[in-house]
Amino acid sequence: MRIFEIVYWAGIFIEMVIRAPLRKTWKESAKTDQRVSQTEKILLGLLSIVMVIIPLIYSATNWLEFANYNLPAWMGWFGVFLLICALLIFMRAHMDLKSNWSPTLEIFEKHTLVTNGIYGYIRHPMYASQWLWVIAQILLLQNWFAGPIDLLFFIPFYILRVQAEEKMMIDVFGDQYREYMKKVGGVIPKWSIFR
Fold this sequence. Notes:
Layout: H1 2-28, E1 31-34, H2 38-60, H3 73-97, E2 106-108, H4 125-140, H5 149-173, H6 175-183
Antiparallel strand pairs: 1-2
Helix pairs in contact: 1-3, 2-5, 3-4, 4-5
């Protein structure tokens, strides 16, 4: 259904709008530490291709039609729900990070450890939003190249990026970050009846 493709592209646009104000601040901020590996750069480039370029080819042409699959309509609508959840988490994460946001692994001169807002529940809300996004993409873009392929590239990116990010945060914030890790889940909240 075309409506699901439209929702997907609306989601891409909304993500760009959410990030736009912080990009300017990020570019102007003085950095004290940058840890971007060549592997990460390659995976980020591949993620851009499978999140934008291939879906664009799928939506704008019939070149990938041979790889289409059909899911029940309710699954597409569930994809819409997941995409909305992903965008809400994405927006909240950016609102809470403010000038601490960076698209790569970087530390700024005035960097602070953010543990409030959504970061009081999960340490990596942007990755949580991306997990929801890649599942939504499978349901919205019902094509083997435009849909599930994003998941194949996101998994190794997530594993590498989170390990490197957690190491950087421990290096910079030490015991403060270790305590935060004990209390707050990675992409899923730590719920406890004893809290």
